[in-house]
Each structure stands twice: as C-alpha cells, then as structure tokens.
Amino acid sequence: MNENTTTALVELKQLSKHFGEGATRVDALRDVSLTIHAREVVGLLGPSGSGKSTLLNAIGCILEPDSGWMRLDGDVVYDNRWLRRDLRRLRLEKIGFIFQKHNLLPFLNCTDNVAIVLTLAGWPKKAAVERARELLAYLQVDHRMEAMPGQLSGGEAQRVAIARALANRPRIILADEPTAALDSERAGRVMDLLHKVAIEQDAAIIAVTHDEKILGRLDRIYRMVDGRLTDQEDDG
Ligand SMILES: Nc1ncnc2c1ncn2[C@@H]1O[C@H](COP(=O)(O)OP(=O)(O)OP(=O)(O)O)[C@@H](O)[C@H]1O
C-alpha cells in the first residue's frame, strides 16, 4: 500500500448475520471485521456458502446485519441498526454494483442502461445521457453506444455494466464475479480497468471471485470460511 491509500472507505467491526433458527440456523457472517482503503482492489474468496454474497450485500446496504458496526466513506451507517433511513439514497450516493450477470436492462440500449441510474438519482435526461456517453468512451465501448444488451459480447456487456456502476461516481464498488464469464485476456483487461478506476476515482473495489486467473491482480485477498474472515493475504 502506498502513502496515498490511507482513506478508509469500508470499515466493518464484528458484523454478524444469521438466517433461520434452530436446526436450520446458518451463521452467514460471524464477527467480520475489516478495513478497505481508497485505491485498493480487494478480492473476497471462499467456498460456496461461506458468506461472500452476504458480506457484499451487507456492505451494499441491501441486507441488514444482525449486529456490529459499519462505516462507509466516513459515515457510520450501521451501529447494531441502520442509522440512515433512506438506504436507497445511501446506495445511490456511495455504492456501485457490478453483478456477474451484468443485470443490463434488455429493452434499453447501452447508453440508456447507464443513463437510467442517473435519471433515477434526479439528473436531467440530457446530462445523464452525456455522462453515460462519456463513461462508455472511458470504458472503450462507445462504438456500442446504441446497441442493445443482447447484441453485445460478454466483455462488452461487462464494460457497460462497469460504466453503469461508475455513473454516480461511487467511492465503493462491489463486484460479484466480475471476470467469471471472460477469457484470460478479457479478464485481464477488466482487472486493468478496475485498477484504473480505483486510482482515478479514489475508490475501493471489492470483488467476490472464484477466478484463479485474476488472483495475482488483486491488491489484497480475504478468504471466508463458514462466515468468518480468515487472515488476509497480500498479493504474491
Ligand atoms: N436469504 C437467505 N435465507 C436463508 N439462508 C441464506 C440466505 N442467503 C444466504 N443464506 C445462507 O447463508 C450462507 C452464506 O450464503 P452466501 O450466499 O453468502 O454464500 P457465498 O459464499 O456467496 O456462496 P456462493 O459462492 O455459492 O455464491 C449459506 O449457507 C446460504 O445458504
């Protein structure tokens, strides 16, 4: 970590979450504590069912933990309960999501798939479209601006999904298997892009991954087992 990466963007202390009760109880998060700084691209690894998605969803304020403490981009948002009433706005302000299946809306072209995030946040349509075009150019998919999601290659769709996640300039970007569907070369390019975004936007990126190809491209790796974080590893 260099001296410019000191701003803590994601801070968790003893975050816990269970599902079910009695014999069916699952402790999906057990006292998870971690700190992730601006300009870091961090990987979250672990076997199926170990709690990775639960952790990503808790950080994304989609899922309410049972207990613990969470500060996002300097604001304490959870202290044994949500401290912000408008979680949707919180998400729009602070968080960008990149989903494995892209989640692009099939009936909107690429520009509108990005612009819609901004119009939902209250931007005028014209400004939203301009920003969407700018982002698609930044991600080098501007030649596909008018294409519908069904017409895109896997790599192109992933870049449009990343453009959408960046639209509101979030400082925390959560990615679920961002390279799973891509060959090594495209996966490498997506990783280059995520590093570029982390540096240029002073953002923290947390990627759930099973993808061995990209392990060397992560600044740090956290491993989860049975809802617990095991020791973090620096990249090799
Ligand atoms: N909504 C839910 N209701 C009940 N149990 C759940 C729910 N969500 C997750 N779980 C359970 O919590 C545990 C952690 O699940 P989670 O999806 O976080 O794991 P994961 O590490 O992301 O797995 P995968 O790699 O398969 O996506 C699992 O045992 C899962 O069955």
UniProtKB/TrEMBL annotation:
Belongs to the ABC transporter superfamily. PANTHER family: ABC TRANSPORTER ABCH.1, IMPORT ATP-BINDING PROTEIN. Keywords: ATP-binding, Nucleotide-binding, Transport. The keyword ATP-binding applies. InterPro entries: AAA+_ATPase, ABC_transporter-like_ATP-bd, ABC_transporter-like_CS, ABC_transpr_LolD-like, MacB-like_ATP-bd, P-loop_NTPase. The keyword ATP-binding applies. Residues 10-236 form the ABC transporter domain. One of its GO terms (molecular function) is ATP binding. It comes from Rhizobium alvei. This is ABC transporter ATP-binding protein. The lineage of its organism: Bacteria, Pseudomonadati, Pseudomonadota, Alphaproteobacteria, Hyphomicrobiales.
